[in-house]
Design goal:
four-stranded mixed beta sheet, alpha+beta, Glutaredoxin, about 35% helix, single chain, 5 helices
């Protein structure tokens, strides 16, 4: 009798933990950021979508990844993918411009049509809350730091960080993860 009650309590406790983890905990949707156009954007605008967050730079050897990111976005945006670009100047001063020049570089040189945000820090005390959260949830190899531009974070449709990808991971290598998340949604 006691063992039976204990087992039931244990099962209920696990169910509560699962609900808490998936429904109640803070998730990606609690944040907001400022677009390149100066508009506040709540991340909950992307509820129900697969979200790929990328710290970007227009003067980086990895900048051509914009092309691959744009290809992914065009291929899957109507199926529920959104890519969010966050320019960052913390790595070798590779994003020195203001919002206007960043926007022009992205559009003119790479045809970027996915949402881009104002320049942010991704490491240190001044890191944007989106990146503080993503690094905490998906710390990676460098003790919770972003190593370089074009680090990518994949967030599931419920707002839970799912997987982190290194700057050297080309956008096309993410496709299988994106397809899986879109299919399971």
């Amino acid at each position: 009798m006691c063992r039976e009650r204990y087992n039931r309590v244990a099962v209920i406790a696990e169910e509560v933990k699962t609900v808490y983890r998936t429904e109640m905990k803070n998730n990606f949707y609690q944040f907001e950021a400022t677009s390149l156009q100066g508009k506040k954007v709540a991340m909950d605008e992307y509820k129900g979508k697969v979200v790929l967050v990328v710290n970007t730079a227009s003067k980086c050897g990895l900048t051509p990844q914009y092309e691959g990111l744009e290809e992914l976005y065009r291929k899957y945006r109507d199926k529920g993918l959104v890519i969010l670009g966050f320019p960052c100047n913390q790595f070798a001063n590779q994003e020195p411009g203001d919002e206007k020049s960043i926007s022009e570089d992205c559009l003119i040189n790479y045809g970027v049509s996915f949402p881009m945000f104002s320049r942010v820090d991704v490491n240190g005390d001044s890191a944007h809350p989106v990146f503080k959260y993503l690094k905490k949830e998906l710390p990676g190899w460098f003790g919770g730091k972003v190593k370089w531009n074009f680090t990518k974070f994949l967030v599931d449709p419920k707002g839970n960080p799912y997987k982190r990808f290194s700057p050297l991971t080309k956008p096309e290598k993410l496709e299988k993860y994106i397809q899986k998340m879109l299919t399971n949604h």
